[in-house]
Amino acid sequence: MADKEQVDQLMDLGNKVARSTIAVVDAITQRGGFKGEELSTIGTLRDQAVQMVQAVETMQADAEFEDDEEEEAA
After folding, report:
1. Helix, strand or coil for residue 1?
2. At what angle are helices 2-30 and 39-73 packed, to 10 degrees?
3. Nearest to 49 by CA among 12, 26, 15
4. Is 13 within 8 Å of 41 (Cβ atoms)?
5. 23: how many CB neighbours lie within 10 A of its CB?
6. What is the pLDDT of residue 64?
7. CA 28/CA 64 separation, integer angstroms
8. What is the rounded distance in angstroms from the CA atom of residue 4 to the CA atom of residue 11?
9. Looking at 1-74, which runs of residues are DSSP E strands?
10. What sign does the CA torsion over 48, 54, 7, 17 have?
11. What are the φ and ψ backbone dihedral angles of 31, each rounded to 5 degrees?
């Protein structure tokens, strides 16, 4: 069970970090805080954070579905 708890904690932390990254990038972009040559890198970072959020949400939904199936089978 410790492994599942660790994975859950890691997914939760990854989700929080990714969401915070998106918020910071969006805020700084709105304030004009990046140079033109930085925009590609910043955009890539934001895209990766969005992918992380989507991956974690998919994994959490799959885990909930599996838990529901196990409860129904019991």
Report:
1. coil
2. 150
3. 15
4. no
5. 11
6. 83
7. 35
8. 10
9. none
10. positive
11. -90, 0
Residue 12 structural domain: 2-73
Query: Has this prediction a pTM greater than 0.90?
Result: no
Domain count, the chain: 1
CA triple 70-14-64, angle to 5 deg: 15
Residue numbers of the chain with a pLDDT score lower than 70: 1-2, 74
Tokens standing for residue 51: 């992918």
Its sign, for the CA torsion 22, 23, 27, 28, is negative
Give the separation between CA 8 and CA 62, rounded to whole angstroms.
13
pLDDT digits (tens, 9 = 90+) for 52-63: 999 999 998 888
Q: Which of 62, 59, 2, 19 is nearest to 27 (CA)?
A: 19
